[in-house]
Amino acid sequence: MSSSPPSDALLGPADIRELAAVLGVRPTKQRGQNFVIDANTVRRIVRTAGVRPDDVVVEVGPGLGSLTLALLEAADRVTAVEIDDVLAGALPATITARMPQRAERFALVHSDAMHVSGLPGPAPTALVANLPYNVAVPVLLHMLETFPTIERTLVMVQSEVADRLAAGPGSKVYGVPSVKANWYADVKRAGAIGRNVFWPAPNVDSGLVSLVRRSEPVVTTASRREVFAVVDAAFAQRRKTLRAALAGWAGSAAAAETALVAAGVSPQARGEALTVEEFARIAEHRQKDSE
After folding, report:
1. Phi and psi angles of residue 49, each rounded to the nearest 5 degrees, phi first
2. Cβ distance 10 to 69 under 8 Å?
3. Residue-wise pLDDT tens digits, 100-156
4. Per the confidence metrics, is the pTM higher than 0.90?
């Protein structure tokens, strides 16, 4: 590997504003853009992510390149996925100008992350991203499903979303994101991020979420799609018992009760009490009953 890049290769507040001015970029609410302007924060994210010298990291929404440069310091390769035309056009030049000795280890995919089905170069081993608040959960789930080689993930998201992703059964904020993320990985909160490290400063707090892919997938004969259908139905009407909430999914309340009892789950339970494994068992029994 090349020698370590100089510490001034990372972007500071003045660099970010200057780049944005040159490009005529104003962060947009529509795309949930808040650029990180603090070099210590991006280095902290890379450390917390446990990025190793042999990692192939995929980054979603690199923006002006703050986190990208810090990732290139630590990883073997970085592939960034950017939807914005102007930002995607400018990022390779920023990397070449500030970290020329690592530029050949950077790749850019100009695309909507929700539609990415393949990446150039070696398969990614890690996902590290400052995810736009408005699409954080669907993008995260899509990337975990599409790239099973991703072993470790660290995402920065709205604090409330971080709480939901990391919540366990019985928590008030446990819901669809919690269960679906847990299908893929062991999930936990990994820290908080202050508002003053962003430009523009958001009006919400941010949090880091660590996801380590399960060494063994959930054991079930049901498909991911079938399990997720149960999860969606169970939380669509949170206050209802599972017997009532799953009536539409099963065909009737009686059919839902049959599937629940067969799965060893109380028909009077509510979705927020169930583990992903229990949702999978329910999905299996609907499968059998409908055959």
Report:
1. -70, -15
2. yes
3. 999 999 999 999 999 999 999 999 999 999 998 789 999 999 999 999 999 999 999
4. yes
Residue appearing with tokens 């056009």 = 89
Output the six-digit token pair for 70: 């810090």
262, two tokens? 């067969």
